[in-house]
Design goal:
- The complex is a heterodimer of chains A (about 290) and B (about 400).
- With about 290 residues, chain A is an all-alpha fold.
- Chain A has one domain.
- Chain A is built from 13 helices and 2 strands; from the N terminus they run H-H-H-H-H-H-E-H-H-H-H-E-H-H-H.
- In chain B, the strands form 4 sheets. In chain B, strands 1, 2, 3, 4, 5, 6 and 7 form a 7-stranded mixed beta sheet that branches.
- Classes of the chains: A mainly alpha (about 290), B alpha/beta (about 400).
């Protein structure tokens, strides 16, 4: 136990110091944090529960669009911001920017979780390959649909609010790094806490033999939905931060980027070791380095 | 076991970070001005990315050969650091960050396509890095209040409205029926806005308005509709792939329409790839080699085209020409600013007013070039099947007369 505390402490200190030790790598470090969040949360239902999904990219993209929309929509008419030929220029004051971002992140976490509940209710009855294939369609469909919605920029893409001018060049990078790092710590602790409860055993029971679990009186459907909602919650958060970090949201290439982020999160969890907490994180480091 | 894992992770992470954290400060080294560019060398924009890169390289070589850039009494040579952005906006933004904060680049050249430029512009703006871009035409780029973004090209909404106006004029001033299909990306959607404006102005009606997916490989559904409702004009835009797909399927399905207006015909090498099938297609272009603009480096369009073909083995599309022009603009601005101070170079860029082989260049407040009209050319083939692009509008530059309406497939 003592050893663990030292270890976590070191990692925490390193995480806090990293952007100052490697100032040129802030963006990469932020993306690393985001990748770890995605992989850890994919592992909740992909690894522990045995329900392989390619659909988590849906929540990531949703979070991205929601966060940016709320951030803009709270202060300016969203339709005019995203309008293709928009002739107007809107500028957020620093206070507006941070308030909007905070509210945006909250929405970006909660709404995908609710949507995961709704979708989960209808498709978590599918098992094995059938579930994987069904979720594969989710991200692709979301990309095409969002590419047709005018209010979020459609095919034009959505430029997220530029970071307010606060006289420090490094402020933007540091802000987004710490956002993603804090969310990462939060995610890690949350998932670790969840794994120490009976909930994890239920998920494992579902993975090992769903019928038997049901026969033992576990309402598997309920647990499956909750498991997926947890993933969605953190994926949404990660997406919201990533949107602000990239600065430009494109429906298929940035938000519902199933080909890259969608595959990465699965790959990292599988390569690192399904059903472990550290495995996915290790492989994130490796992949993001490549 | 667990602890061991953690330690390995931790150590390897640190090792990795240290191994890559050697920051080189490039900017202006010795007698070199180092520019940075993220270019699509792979992915869906790869062919246009290469056109862009060829344009940049040719201009760099030419300027260096002809004496380089004179700043503060010293002669400098251009050099470009390229990264492949995989046609992905997220990657492009990351690479811009990398070029500026890791490689220390202080001046940037643009990527290919509006979407990628949109992703990079916030980054260059943040660091105050002047960027001259040659391939991001979307109007929304110029309304965001960017101060360090300069585009040598005319905005995308002006691409094809000339075609609609021509069609209306040929129709005796009465409105025409337009069918249109655009890829879902920033550039093509902007072309669409231009058509909507033109339609409203001329009292034309839009009877088909389709959105096509990215990675455009099939538009048979749209064409089937076109066959059924017989519009007067068919407008298609979707980068290189859109142009190729449209011509291939129009020929396959023998779709008859009086006017076919497109973008990217020259970048797609339509006349070479599809020969006579591409005949009569009307294309929007930022530049054509027969235009009579002049400068000291490339002389004129014809000379540029000949030199380009000698180097790269194909006729230069406008994407290459505008990319070369971007370098000329940079050189001009450096010499007028007579310093490498980013703010002063930026001001010099804003005050640009010059002629290049590619056209006149003068930037508006938003950074777009307002001194250069678009041209329309038509693919024309002789009996032997040799096809050429000939400028048909505006009349000042026209080298051939517009063939209208397009003859039916049964009569070709």
């Amino acid at each position: 136990m003592n050893k663990n505390i030292i270890l976590y402490g070191t990692i925490l200190i390193f995480g806090i110091a990293a952007p100052f030790i490697f100032p040129a790598f802030k963006v990469q470090l932020s993306i690393l944090c985001i990748l770890i969040i995605l992989a850890i949360t994919w592992n909740v239902q992909g690894g522990e529960m045995g329900y392989n999904t390619f659909g988590n990219i849906l929540f990531y993209g949703l979070g991205m669009y929601l966060c940016a929309s709320v951030q803009v929509g709270m202060f300016f008419p969203l339709g005019e911001w995203t309008e293709g030929g928009g002739e107007k220029t809107f500028v957020h004051t620093p206070a507006q920017f941070f308030q909007g971002f905070a509210v945006g992140l909250a929405v970006a976490a909660v709404v995908p979780a609710i949507i995961a509940g709704l979708i989960g209710y209808s498709i978590l009855g599918l098992r094995g390959h059938y579930f994987a294939i069904c979720t594969l369609g989710l991200g692709v469909a979301a990309g095409e649909i969002s590419g047709g919605i005018e209010i979020i920029g459609a095919g034009q893409g959505f430029t997220t609010p530029p970071f307010p001018n606060v006289d420090r060049l490094e402020a933007r990078g540091e802000f987004f790094y710490f956002c993603s790092f804090i969310v990462l710590v939060f995610t890690f602790l949350a998932v670790k806490a969840i794994y120490s409860t009976r909930f994890k055993l239920v998920l494992n029971a579902i993975r090992d033999n769903e019928d038997k679990a049901e026969a033992m009186g576990i309402q598997t459907m309920k647990y499956k939905i909750i498991g997926w909602m947890i993933s969605a919650f953190f994926c949404g958060l990660a997406g919201g931060i990533m949107g602000g970090l990239v600065g430009y949201i494109d429906s298929t290439d940035v938000a519902f980027d199933g080909r890259e982020m969608g595959v990465f999160m699965v790959l990292m969890a599988i390569l690192g070791g399904k059903g472990t907490l550290w495995g996915p994180s290790n492989w994130c480091n490796f992949i993001s380095y490549i | 076991m667990k602890i061991k894992n953690i330690i390995i992770t931790f150590v390897s992470a640190i090792a990795i970070l240290f191994s890559t954290s050697v920051v080189s400060f490039a900017k202006v080294v010795g007698d070199k001005i180092i520019l940075g560019a993220a270019i699509s060398l792979t992915g869906k924009y790869s062919s246009n990315g290469v056109h862009t890169q060829n344009g940049y390289n040719m201009a760099v070589d030419r300027i260096n050969e002809m004496g380089g850039v004179k700043v503060g009494g010293k002669t400098y040579k251009f050099d470009i650091i390229y990264y492949d952005d995989e046609s992905n906006p997220k990657r492009a933004a990351q690479l811009a960050e990398r070029l500026i904060s890791q490689d220390g680049v202080e001046f940037m050249l643009g990527p290919y396509s509006s979407g990628l430029t949109k992703a990079i512009a916030p980054v260059t703006e943040k660091y105050g890095v002047p960027m001259v871009e040659a391939n991001g035409a979307s109007r929304s780029l110029f309304t965001k209040g960017y101060k360090y973004l300069f585009a040598v090209l005319a905005p995308a909404n002006l691409y094809l409205d000339v075609a609609i106006e021509t069609a209306v004029a040929l129709n005796g001033g009465k409105g025409v029926r337009i069918a249109q299909a655009f890829e879902q990306d920033a550039f093509s959607q902007d072309v669409r806005l231009g058509i909507l404006d033109a339609a409203e102005r001329t009292g034309s009606k839009i009877i088909i308005d389709d959105k096509l997916p990215k990675e455009l490989n099939d538009m048979a559904a749209t064409l089937a509709k076109v066959k059924a409702v017989k519009p007067d004009v068919l407008v298609v835009s979707g980068h290189t792939k859109g142009a190729l797909t449209a011509i291939r399927q129009i020929a396959e399905m023998k779709v008859d329409v009086p006017m076919l207006a497109m973008t990217h015909c020259d970048a797609a090498k339509l006349s070479k790839q599809h020969g006579k099938n591409s005949q009569y297609a009307l294309c929007a272009s930022q530049w054509h080699k027969t235009l009579t603009y002049k400068d000291d480096f490339f002389k004129d369009g014809m000379t540029y085209a000949a030199d380009f073909e000698k180097l790269f083995g194909y006729d230069p599309p406008y994407q290459s020409a505008e990319s070369s022009a971007a370098l000329l603009v940079f050189k001009d601005a450096f010499e007028r600013a007579n310093t490498f101070d980013q703010k002063k170079v930026r001001d010099a860029l804003a005050a640009t007013n010059m002629q290049t082989f590619y056209g006149n260049i003068k930037f508006a407040e938003g950074g777009q070039n307002v001194d250069k009209p678009m041209v329309l050319f038509q693919v024309m083939c002789d009996d032997a099947g040799k096809c050429e692009n000939k400028v048909v509008a505006p009349l000042k530059w026209a080298s051939a007369e517009l063939i209208h309406p397009i003859p039916k497939w049964s009569e070709r």
